[in-house]
Every structure is written in C-alpha cells, then in structure tokens.
Prior knowledge:
Radius of gyration: 16 Å
CATH class: Alpha Beta
CATH topology: Rossmann fold
Mean pLDDT: 94
Structural class: alpha/beta
Number of helices: 9
CATH architecture: 3-Layer(aba) Sandwich
Low-confidence stretches: none
Bound molecules: adenosine-5'-triphosphate, magnesium ion
Number of strands: 7
Strand order of the largest sheet: 3-2-4-1-5-6-7
Shape: globular
Amino acid sequence: xxxxxxxxxxxxxxxxxTTLAVAIAGVYASNGSSVLLVDADSRKRLQEEWYNPExxxxxxxxxxSRVEDVETDVSKNRDVFDVIIIDVEGSANWALAQALQVAxxxxxxSNVSFQDLKDxxxxxxxxxxxxxxxxxxxHCWIVWNRVPTAIRSKEMKxxxxxxxxxxxxxxxxxHERDAYKAMFSYQTTLDKLRExxxxxxxxxxxxxxxxxxxxxxxxxxAQAA
Length: 225
Ligand SMILES: Nc1ncnc2c1ncn2[C@@H]1O[C@H](COP(=O)(O)OP(=O)(O)OP(=O)(O)O)[C@@H](O)[C@H]1O
Ligand SMILES: [Mg+2]
C-alpha cells in the first residue's frame, strides 16, 4: 500500500515542526510502521543533529531533500515506506508549497499566540485553495504546541477562542514538555526515553502524540466515509 504522507508545515519559524515530525515518527515506528522522514530544511537539522542509526529504531530513515526535489523524493519512496513525514523549514518557500501539495495530511503546529495563529491561518487558507482546484482532498489541521501543563494566561485563552471563532480546524494540543527537547539531546524517540526512564515526561508526551495520530486517522476515515 502507498505511504501515508504527512507534512509538518508552517511558514512560521520555530513553531515545532521538526519536534512534531520526530515525535510522530517515533510513535509510528514503535507501532511497527516503517517511517521515512524527509528533511526539506536546508539546514538539515534532522539529518545532522538528530538522526543516528545507532540509537534509533531501524524502522526510521531520514533523507535530506533539496527545496526543489521534495515532491520527487516523496514519489520515489511512496511504495517503500508505510509513512512519510516531511519536515520543512520555517519560511514560505517552494518546499512548503510542495509538501502541502503532496501530503495527505498537513499538521500545522502553532504556539498559542495571535501572531502564530495568523501564520497557521495562511497555511490553512493555502491548502483550502489547492483543494478547490483539485479532485483530491488534503487535510490541514492546526496543532496547538507548547501549551503549558498548568495555568494558561488570558491571552492564551483569547487566542484559542479566536481560533474557534474564525473556524480554524484544531486537531489536538501538545504540551510544553522536556521530553520533546530530550529527543534531540539523546538522538532518540519518546518510547526509548520512556523505557530508559531518562525524562519523566516522556510517557505523557508519547500518549499525547498517540492521541494526535488517532485523531488524524479518525479525520481520514470520516472524510472517506
Ligand atoms: N512541545 C514542546 N515542548 C517543549 N519544547 C518544544 C516543544 N515544541 C518545540 N519545542 C522547542 O522549541 C524549539 C523550536 O522547535 P522546532 O525546532 O521543532 O521548531 P521548527 O518549527 O522546526 O523550527 P524551524 O522553523 O527553525 O525549522 C526547539 O528548541 C524545541 O525543542
Ligand atoms: Mg525545523
């Protein structure tokens, strides 16, 4: 079966695309899926700072893709892997457009601020515009990222309300947790961090990523029905 293609995409820098890509890849791999991460960031952070075949599951592979080659690289691998996750850099470049075009499901991480929400809205509007001109429907959902586990500020609540009022589709919430940062320090995935008891929040992070994955599949099934 052809791969399920996910884009972690936003024109906003630093909103959590790479973190989300790695976290999702880990949960799919620990459930037995083969995963290709396509690093479409010219800084090659995934490839150079995270990917380590000695510490990672053999189910996970990473390739770097040049900005102009994202679509081709995904096509070449779509019959080889169960899941392909594209990580783009935080700018409105060609890689972002191709990732949104080729993905079945785009996840747009957004910190809970009005500025981030505006960028997320632009990405969502772009996907809606390509959907209108195409026979294939592409999902595009916003994921709140780095939400504090404790008290939320008034501004945060106002931003979340604004998203609902403007009809933006929100998939799930990812909290601010050390485990997400630790995946990079240890060049590993959340399941390994949990097993090694390296970071207390790894289990909770893994659970919220599993919820996000279930939510994606529910949306796909609802669309197909
Ligand atoms: N849920 C989270 N909890 C804690 N830290 C997080 C979380 N999400 C992201 N971060 C941290 O925020 C910073 C930016 O995250 P990340 O590199 O994933 O963003 P990005 O969107 O890929 O950035 P860029 O646009 O530069 O590629 C990193 O230091 C990362 O560890
Ligand atoms: Mg990144």
